[in-house]
């Protein structure tokens, strides 16, 4: 292994250039680029401060290996397949460790980040604490940057003397600069020249399989890659496992992304971890997620050979959920691990799949009781062994194994009535209970919504006498009481939207409802119980109705809901997509390369972080609903965050100069065009139907802060509603 050093400018020029040592490229085992703008900006600040940069690892090889180029103009969400390069047997340099840093340098010095280029504040550099930014870098739209912000690549690739460039830059100032500021600019230009052009600051260790072909085999390199990355946080465990599979299977990326796209098309969130674990379980390797299992060439070969059967088993179980258990979305699926015994049975005993009994009862019982929570690997292994022993899916016998593992399956009254608002279990129960509702709406905001029968706002006002203060200040109904299943019902989006239920008490909301409506929602018929002062009595009466409805359904489902469809026969198209016959309702992808990446759930966590940021800078309009959090700027403008949407999706009023904001507007709605019905007169009165509104999609919380700063300084556009 040889150590090499180069200047940053020189090494960046080698990327994607086959004329320079064959060019530097990224092998397919590398995961996608994930750094945010702020991380790249901090990297450049660190370099300017002479902080060390870690050594990279590069493999020089003539092997015909699938790889991709470094991204010059980065756009989040763009599929990696668009950066693939043709395979060849010429010597080339493949980066095994250091992708994020090297890619960041390439974007900053030779490209852009989502249409913005890296600019440097040539007047920055005052001493600061170690954790603060000293040398200011920022990604900006080229046309919006003004002095002292200078495009950094113009400094690094300047051909003349640095002091001449410093003078040129100082002359861009609209006012004469004091000597101190002029000297700072010249000093910064010289520092950038030294760090990026003169000093050999970037180091890499070279694994050479060209001059020494026997030194490093492809398996050696994959093992080195895993060891180099597994010690830190660069790769998740699924990344490491998948890198092993990718090294042996060129089409692994396309096949996996295609499968996940099809599985999740209907609202689920299957992820790569679950699929990889399923591969191990189905091939008899046990449920324990161990890198060593994927190091075995035989295991990898069997996954590739049996991929069609594996995907058919997973897809058939997904279809069984949707068609026969009414667990039709991620919200109602409390454990994906709980599906592995069914996937195992479908994979090994397809001839018995369509005639199996009790599968839906199994799913519902383990999902409601959360029997697969915690660490279920040993339990999964026990269940699959029992399935092989019986050569069948014997539900009573499998339930007994679950109980022997110390996990409860009891559907007692306390268990059912203890399920709370906001839990995935409550969605599961409602999916069973409200089967006449449409769970596949045209758009996400139109989905049925869980709502409180007695509004939280009213229940919070009920206070008890506090002997310590001599006032009625003790809240009678804490959140656990307000949020219990007995105080929840399912409403359509229209019912919960503008002019709908809102904060209406039951006495008002149910006053004009039919007997059929009350029966569907299991509402006690005694109207005197609908009054706020009878809340406790209402709960007791409704608990009885709930248990009468739910317990029979959970213990014995109709035969039609217990029998799966016939197993499908999948085939793979030229792009590696899993396609299944339309006769059994399986999803078929007709789109191009998938654009989704990352573990499901990351987008929703980003939305949660966005709400925290907005709460810190803005005023809440009202208590957020499950779907909408409304805010108001200090100047009176309103904006709303969609809480259930992946990423950061905002609604705002129409403001001037939108095109010059630097942010990407998703859509403009006129005053009469229907929009998300969760926007109502309470949570966002100025965004409701009757006013023009805008929608925006932001990348991260850093961009959100910039957006808030811009929006705070806007003035609203009044709409003529005469």
Automatic annotation (TrEMBL):
> Which organism is this entry from?
Billgrantia aerodenitrificans
Domain GmrSD restriction endonucleases N-terminal positions: 15-245
List, alphabetically, the PANTHER family matched: DUF262 DOMAIN-CONTAINING PROTEIN (PTHR37292:SF2), VNG6097C (PTHR37292)
> What is the protein's given name?
DUF262 domain-containing protein
Q: Where is the GmrSD restriction endonucleases C-terminal domain?
A: 427-548
| Compositionally biased tracts (Polar residues) | 577-591
Q: Where is this region: Disordered?
A: 557-607
Domain of life of the organism in this record? Bacteria
One Pfam family hit = GmrSD_C
């Amino acid at each position: 292994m040889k150590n090499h050093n180069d200047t940053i400018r020189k090494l960046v020029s080698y990327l994607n250039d086959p004329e320079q040592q064959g060019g530097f490229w990224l092998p397919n085992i590398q995961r996608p680029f994930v750094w945010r703008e702020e991380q790249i900006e901090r990297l450049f600040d660190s370099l300017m401060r002479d902080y060390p940069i870690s050594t990279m690892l590069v493999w020089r090889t003539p092997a015909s290996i699938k790889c991709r180029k470094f991204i010059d103009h980065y756009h989040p969400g763009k599929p990696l397949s668009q950066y693939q390069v043709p395979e060849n047997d010429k010597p080339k340099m493949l980066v095994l460790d250091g992708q994020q840093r090297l890619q960041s340098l390439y974007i900053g010095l030779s490209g852009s980040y989502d249409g913005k280029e890296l600019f440097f504040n040539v007047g920055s550099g005052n001493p600061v604490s170690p954790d603060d930014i000293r040398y200011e870098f920022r990604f900006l739209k080229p046309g919006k940057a003004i002095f002292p912000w200078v495009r950094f690549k113009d400094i690094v690739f300047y051909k003349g003397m640095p002091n001449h460039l410093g003078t040129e830059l100082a002359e861009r100032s609209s006012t004469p600069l004091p000597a101190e500021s002029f000297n700072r600019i010249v000093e910064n230009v010289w520092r950038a020249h030294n760090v990026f052009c003169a000093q050999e600051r970037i180091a890499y260790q070279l694994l050479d399989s060209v001059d020494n072909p026997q030194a490093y085999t492809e398996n050696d390199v994959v093992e080195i890659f895993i060891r180099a990355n597994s010690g830190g946080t660069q790769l998740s465990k699924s990344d490491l496992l998948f890198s092993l599979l990718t090294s042996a299977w060129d089409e692994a990326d396309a096949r996996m992304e295609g499968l996940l796209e099809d599985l999740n098309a209907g609202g689920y969130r299957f992820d790569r971890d679950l699929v990889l674990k399923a591969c191990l379980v189905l091939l008899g390797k046990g449920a324990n997620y161990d890198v060593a299992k994927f190091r075995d060439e035989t295991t990898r070969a069997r996954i590739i050979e049996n991929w069609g059967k594996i995907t058919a088993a997973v897809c058939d179980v997904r279809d069984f959920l949707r068609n026969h258990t009414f667990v039709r979305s991620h919200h109602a699926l409390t454990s994906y691990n709980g599906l592995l015994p069914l996937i195992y049975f479908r994979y090994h005993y397809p001839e018995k799949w369509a005639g199996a009994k009790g599968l839906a009862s199994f799913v519902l019982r383990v999902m409601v009781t959360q029997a697969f929570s915690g660490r279920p690997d040993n339990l999964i292994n026990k269940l699959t062994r029992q399935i092989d022993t019986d050569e069948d899916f014997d539900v009573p016998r499998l339930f007994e194994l679950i109980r022997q593992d110390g996990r409860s399956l009891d559907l007692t009254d306390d268990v059912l009535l203890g399920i709370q608002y906001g839990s995935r279990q409550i969605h599961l129960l409602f999916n069973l209970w409200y089967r006449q509702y449409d769970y596949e709406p045209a758009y996400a905001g139109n989905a049925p919504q869980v709502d409180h029968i007695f509004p939280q706002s009213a229940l919070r006002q009920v206070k008890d006498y506090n002997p310590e203060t001599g006032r009625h200040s003790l809240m009678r109904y804490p959140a656990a009481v307000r949020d219990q299943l007995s105080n929840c019902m399912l409403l359509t989006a229209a019912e919960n939207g503008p002019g709908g239920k809102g904060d209406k008490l039951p006495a008002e909301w149910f006053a004009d409802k039919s007997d059929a409506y009350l029966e569907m929602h299991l509402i006690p018929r005694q109207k005197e119980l609908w009054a706020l002062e009878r809340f406790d009595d209402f709960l007791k009466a409704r608990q009885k109705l709930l248990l009468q409805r739910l317990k029979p359904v959970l213990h014995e489902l109709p035969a039609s809901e217990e029998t799966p469809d016939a197993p499908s026969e999948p085939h793979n198209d030229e792009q590696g997509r899993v396609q299944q016959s339309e006769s059994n309702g399986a999803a078929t992808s007709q789109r191009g390369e998938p654009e989704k990446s990352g573990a499901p759930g990351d987008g929703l966590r980003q939305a949660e972080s966005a709400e925290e940021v907005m709460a810190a800078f803005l005023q809440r309009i009202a208590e957020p609903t499950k779907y909408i959090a409304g805010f108001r700027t200090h100047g009176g403008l309103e904006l709303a965050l969609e809480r259930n949407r992946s990423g950061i999706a905002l609604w705002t009023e129409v403001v001037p100069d939108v095109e010059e904001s630097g942010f990407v507007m998703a859509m403009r709605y006129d005053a009469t065009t229907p929009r998300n019905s969760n926007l109502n007169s309470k949570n966002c009165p100025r965004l409701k139907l009757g006013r023009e509104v805008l929608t925006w999609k932001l990348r991260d919380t850093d961009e959100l802060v910039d957006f808030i700063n811009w929006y705070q300084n806007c003035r609203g556009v009044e709409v003529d509603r005469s």
